[in-house]
Amino acid sequence: MSRYAKQSLFLGEASQEKIAKACVAIVGLGATGSVLAQWLARAGIGTLHLIDRDFVEISNLQRQLLYDESDLGQPKALAAERKIRSINSSIRIYAHVVDLIPDNAEQLLSHADVMGDGTDNFEARFLMNDVSIRHHIPWVYNGAVGSEGMIWPIHPPATPCFRCLMEQPPEQSDIDTCDTAGILGPVTGLIGSWAAIEILKFVVGEPPQSDLVRLDQWSNERQFIHAPITRCRFCREGITEFLDTPWQFKTSSLCGTPGVQLRVNPARNIDLHSLFSHLKPRKDSDWKLTPLFIQGKERDISITIFKDGRMLFRGDILPETAQQWFHEVLE
């Protein structure tokens, strides 16, 4: 009996062949994204691109089912690639330890047949929406916080785009996050599994769920939000301002842990070996070099430096202090 025999009984052999030829890019491999990636691998999606900027932490293990204690401290994209390869070694899997930004979004996503949203930030979602508009690629928005989850398959012009419902990214202070409202692990598993089904529908050519669905598993409530098909000016006129607007030197808070992420524009091409030699003699610090990044600790702050100049500062640190450290070390 073949690996996909039971699935093929339901979908049919022709649909299984479409699945085997499909390419799906998943942005974010946390609670929903890691579940989504597992199901797509088990379904036989031919090519998976796994995109995540973060590392596995102990607080992730309560809800991020793909990881265990042996993965702590590893980049999520690499840990996910390793785990998924052990689930299905017959598919192609590519890991990308990067932050999705305007400079790389099209390179990472434009080859995909469908995009899956597993991210925890709206900047990435608006970039995915722009790629969807420009390259006519469907994607599935999903998210979970507290006991609530949301999911919405998007494929303009057949459906409204993300900006038809939300024109601009919300202010961080205006939305609940896992830091402010917490999260029930089973909710993320449910939403990630539902997203996998909607992606499979796109792949085999079946019509997906048309409404944005919001559910609360604790109170057993469901809400179906019908987006107007009138279409906003962004998808109507093909405006992709998030892809087209250069981002500047920027700091942002990390989700789920104290700390700061720092990004620079334009992206750097850092010689990690040279920088490691420069950092190693610094007082009160301890550094290690890997092929993808330098990681170390200085004054109780954990610091990770990537080749493109992105930095993660974990610990009790102000954005201004992180910027000062960047200028001191790299400029």
CATH first level of the largest domain: Alpha Beta
**Largest pleated sheet:** 8 strands, mixed
Please state the CA-atom Rg, rounded to the nearest Å. Answer: 20 Å
* Weakly predicted, low-confidence segments: none
**Main sheet: which strands, in order across?**
3-2-1-4-5-6-7-8
Termini separation comes to 60 Å
The helical percent reads: 25-40%
Report the structural category.
alpha/beta
CATH homologous group name of the largest domain: NAD(P)-binding Rossmann-like Domain
Q: Examine the secondary-structure arrangement and name the CATH architecture of the largest domain.
A: 3-Layer(aba) Sandwich
Query: Percent of residues in beta strands?
Result: 15-25%
Globally, the shape reads globular
How do the strands and helices of this protein lay out in sequence?
Layout lengths: L4 H7 L1 H9 L1 E5 L3 H13 L3 E6 L23 H12 L4 E6 L7 H5 L4 E4 L4 H14 L3 E7 L2 E7 L7 H4 L12 H4 L3 H20 L7 E5 L4 E5 L7 H5 L3 H4 L5 E4 L5 E5 L8 H8 L5 E5 L3 E6 L2 E6 L4 E4 L4 H12 L1
Parallel strand pairs: 1-2, 1-4, 2-3, 4-5
Antiparallel strand pairs: 5-6, 6-7, 7-8, 9-10, 10-14, 11-12, 12-13, 13-14
